[in-house]
Write a structure and sequence with these properties.
single chain; 3-stranded antiparallel sheet
């Protein structure tokens, strides 16, 4: 029995991987600590600090990086969190993400001559109404009632040099390790750079979002989940077979899927906002820079692609880019003979979503006792969303072409002239229906 189970009893319904043991503090802290030590040696040194350093430093750095990668990858294969299914699932995500991040930072990116550099952001005030962004989606953190954030224009300046001394190097390594989306570095993910017009939420804005938006959504979602579980899926008799997700009425399946999505979305926003508030006194340090987690309001989205680009967090975007998008583009260009400068959108979309399917189904596999069939729901969900993005783009092009042909003799060729009054409603019905229908695969596993 581990130390923590003395205070928190293990969950009887958790099905960890056979042979895994309860997570220990040393096992939890060792991977990020060794990773941090390796990051200290990642930026180039201005001059050899001691003889033979040009040989010794790369060897030590590579050894530390390789060791940390192994520690990350073995986390979900060796340990589980006995009192929580959700934390065991998250442990798998952390292990897989951490190991892939180490490979990227130390063994893949340097091959292409790229070591992340610091990026400094400047924000100049501008006058606009939150929620009405003409040039692109504005930045919100699950704000439904539009608190009065400061509208700004963001510019980014990349540092030309590297850390100057060991104190600066230590800060650089800590900032990069804690920045999942790469904010503050040239690893910045797309959600931070969608547009230069953005918003800077204050501590008051974040508190308002938590109190008025996040907690009510979190409470309502949790209440619906508990209601459906207790009323339809739970059985007092332990010997009686418990109903499965597929035994629920179809409408109840969709409701449970929506409640689970709302719960996850609001829980992520709650954690993000709390950390942003706690670290705000460190401003202007990059450690206090928390770009809003979601970059557009739910009701402003018009496609499945919009949802995954602007309506959901992109914490794993670097992982999906390196291990999904780029390989997918490469495969498409090889199969079609496209040149490197030509877009490969099908490979890009499928590669990104297939990598997400693998990551999430792997995490599901660790909480279903290694049962691949039980964990395949996440894979079907994300792979299906990738296909939906391609299908909706094909439909959009087909409809636009037909409408343009029907207006061949019109005086204008503007796209706006091709719109229909029902478009705004139809596209929203489409993406919500797709996510709820496919999301049943995700909810089934949970």
């Amino acid at each position: 029995m581990s130390f923590i189970t003395l205070f928190v009893p293990p969950r009887p319904d958790l099905q960890p991987l056979p042979g895994t043991k309860p997570l220990t503090p040393s096992a939890a802290f060792a991977p990020p600590l060794v990773y941090y030590l390796a990051l200290l040696l990642l930026p180039p040194f201005p001059a050899p600090p001691f003889p033979l350093s040009s040989t010794i430093i790369p060897i030590v750095r590579s050894a530390l990086a390789l060791f940390s990668g192994i520690l990350f990858f073995r986390l979900p294969l060796t340990y589980h969190v006995p009192f929580s299914i959700g934390l065991t699932y998250q442990l798998a995500l952390v292990g897989l993400y951490g190991g892939c991040r180490v490979l990227d930072a130390f063994f893949l990116s340097p091959v292409f001559g790229h070591i992340p550099r610091r990026v400094k952001y400047q924000h100049a005030a501008r006058t606009e109404t939150p929620g009405f962004e003409p040039d692109g989606p504005s930045y919100f953190s699950l704000h439904f009632l539009a608190p009065k954030e400061q509208a700004v224009t963001e510019t980014a300046t990349t540092d030309e040099g590297w850390p100057h001394d060991w104190w600066d190097r230590a800060a650089w390594a800590l900032e990069l390790e804690l920045s999942m989306r790469g904010a503050g570095f040239t690893w910045t993910s797309a959600d931070v750079r969608h547009t230069k017009k953005t918003w800077t939420p204050s501590v008051g804005n974040r508190v308002h979002s938590i109190a008025v938006d996040v907690l009510p959504v979190l409470g309502l979602s949790w209440g619906l989940i508990r209601y459906i579980y207790v009323g339809y899926l739970d059985r007092p008799d332990a010997n009686a077979p418990k109903p499965l997700f597929d035994d629920l009425p179809f409408g109840m399946q969709l409701l449970l899927t929506a409640a689970l999505g709302g719960f996850l979305m609001s829980a992520f926003s709650l954690g993000h906002s709390i950390f942003a508030i706690l670290l705000s006194p460190l401003s202007p340090s990059p450690l206090s820079y928390f770009p809003p987690l979601y970059t557009s309001r739910i009701w402003s989205l018009t496609s499945v692609r919009d949802f995954w680009s602007y309506g959901w967090h992109r914490l794993f975007s670097r992982l999906f880019l390196v291990y999904g998008v780029w390989p997918g583009e490469w495969v498409e260009r090889k199969l079609t003979g496209k040149r490197p400068n030509e877009p490969a959108d099908v490979g890009k979309v499928l590669g990104g979503f297939l990598s997400s399917a693998f990551v999430h189904s792997f995490a599901g596999w660790t909480v279903h006792g290694g049962n691949l069939m039980e964990a395949s729901g996440e894979a079907r969900f994300f792979a299906g969303c990738g296909l939906a993005v391609i299908v909706e783009e094909l439909i959009k092009r087909l409809v636009t072409s037909q409408r343009r042909n029907s207006k061949r003799h019109s005086r204008t060729d503007q796209v706006d002239a091709l719109d229909r009054p029902y478009d705004e409603v139809a596209v929203r019905i489409w993406w919500v229906s797709v996510l709820l229908f496919l999301g049943r695969n995700f909810a089934r596993g949970w």
